[in-house]
Amino acid sequence: MAGYGCGGYEMEQPDAIIHQPVRLKIMAALKGLPRGERLEFVRLRAILNATEGNLGAHIGTLETAGYIKVEKDFNGKKPRTRISLTEAGNRAYADYVAFLRAILDGEGSRAATGGLP
Amino acid sequence: MTLSPNEAVDALHDIAAVEAHSQRLYGYRKASPQLILWGVLWMIGYGLTAAWPSRSNPIWIAVDATGLAASFLISARRTRNADAGGSRPRVYWRFPAIMLIAFVFVAATIVIMAPVSGRQVGAFIPLVVAASYAVMGLWLGLRFTIAGAALAALTLGGFFLLPAHFALWMAAVGGGVLILGGLWLRRV
Prior knowledge:
The complex is a heterodimer of chains A (117) and B (188). By secondary structure, chain A is of the alpha+beta class.
């Protein structure tokens, strides 16, 4: 169901879990890897330039939603946390990107009809 | 929940940048052990060549065979580790295959061009490797191009300025550049 809200294009509600900027970027960073590949927590933190606590909280939210898988093990004697995108997460991310693109498509249509919905 | 077109553009721009950054770092991380491996092998190969120039052919046959086998094992191990994460099986022969193709290309070129000295061969191969990294960098990230440019510059510098000690130069500097390049690729 699509329509126009106040200054924006409104369609079906975006996924509230991914809608948060840090969580969206976590999903994007994981999407940038080959399917099934895992990203170490420390590398993800560096890519996003996020603090450990903040990133950990958002990872917890995404894991609870089933969008990512978190694996903890040891690399030699060092503890290691690795994160990967699940199939559900992959679909959710694709849907969210489609939602963003639909907003732009809607804007293009509006411009083509002289700004009228 | 409403999002303006400008906000949507910003979000798409942000996620495209993060995806690209993540892809680039993944490519760096994957290539890193291969550079370090070949850096160590170049140190050994050029070092032994400097000590026993007349035995350079068997030395490099052994070094290249070891390198190809080790490169294949590294790729296979990385793929196995990734597959343990639940992905479908992936090819792990691509990087060693690239090197095998380069090896055949270099061997064929040497046969056709018939260089008159071992020093020419010793400079030609690093220049081919350097050019390959420089080209790869156009798609995979600037660090490859910088590593390739550094390797080419140092190879040419050693070839023209230190002809008497070229093999030693390449052992230290050629191998060193690959090792340092590999370590640099591991950094986020």
